[in-house]
């Protein structure tokens, strides 16, 4: 149960390669689908769950293999975060940034196309901030977590988005 099934170096390299591959793949999907969690948060949860599943379920991988893989994934995550903090050019590649969705009341149609956002969806998200017309918006950003932040004309920030009532 605690004996490694695979060589330690192979397990570490596999964990690092999978982490890095999955770090870059979601960037192609865009920001708006990630919801409240950041893409790297979702990535960590999925990878850790997969890494320990064999050891928990008694599959072909040992508990030790799973723990080595989890440690590798967490070290990779910390290394990417540290490198992004220290090197802005690297951060631009691996970290999503807020992107302007509305500027002075004008919708950013190319961004909307890239994120597959219809005008109706943008208007719906604005209403959650208490804004009924894009002309009221000085700046609105699509944030890395998929949320929209809104500054009205005159520089005032809008209310925090209201959650719909539970049914």
UniProtKB/TrEMBL annotation:
<feature type="domain" description="YetF C-terminal">
    <location>
        <begin position="87"/>
        <end position="158"/>
    </location>
</feature>
<dbReference type="Pfam" id="PF04239">
    <property type="entry name" value="DUF421"/>
</dbReference>
<keyword id="KW-0812">Transmembrane</keyword>
<keyword id="KW-0472">Membrane</keyword>
<feature type="transmembrane region" description="Helical">
    <location>
        <begin position="37"/>
        <end position="56"/>
    </location>
</feature>
<dbReference type="InterPro" id="IPR007353">
    <property type="entry name" value="DUF421"/>
</dbReference>
<feature type="transmembrane region" description="Helical">
    <location>
        <begin position="68"/>
        <end position="87"/>
    </location>
</feature>
<keyword id="KW-1133">Transmembrane helix</keyword>
<protein>
    <recommendedName>
        <fullName>YetF C-terminal domain-containing protein</fullName>
    </recommendedName>
</protein>
<dbReference type="InterPro" id="IPR023090">
    <property type="entry name" value="UPF0702_alpha/beta_dom_sf"/>
</dbReference>
<keyword id="KW-1003">Cell membrane</keyword>
<dbReference type="GO" id="GO:0005886">
    <property type="term" value="C:plasma membrane"/>
</dbReference>
<comment type="similarity">
    <text>Belongs to the UPF0702 family.</text>
</comment>
């Amino acid at each position: 149960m605690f004996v490694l099934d695979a060589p330690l170096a192979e397990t570490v390299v596999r964990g690092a390669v999978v982490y890095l591959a999955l770090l870059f793949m979601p960037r192609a999907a865009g920001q708006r689908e990630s919801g409240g969690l950041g893409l790297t948060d979702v990535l960590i949860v999925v990878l850790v769950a997969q890494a320990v599943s064999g050891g928990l379920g008694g599959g072909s991988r040992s508990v030790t293999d799973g723990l080595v893989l989890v440690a590798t994934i967490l070290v990779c995550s910390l290394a990417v975060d540290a490198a992004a903090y220290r090197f802005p050019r690297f951060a631009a590649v691996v970290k999503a940034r807020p992107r302007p969705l509305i500027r002075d009341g004008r919708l950013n149609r190319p961004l909307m196309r890239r994120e597959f956002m219809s005008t109706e969806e943008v208007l719906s998200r604005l209403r959650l901030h208490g804004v009924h017309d894009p002309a009221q918006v000085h700046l609105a950003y699509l944030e890395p977590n998929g949320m929209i932040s809104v500054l009205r004309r005159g520089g005032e920030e809008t209310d925090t988005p209201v959650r719909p009532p539970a049914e």
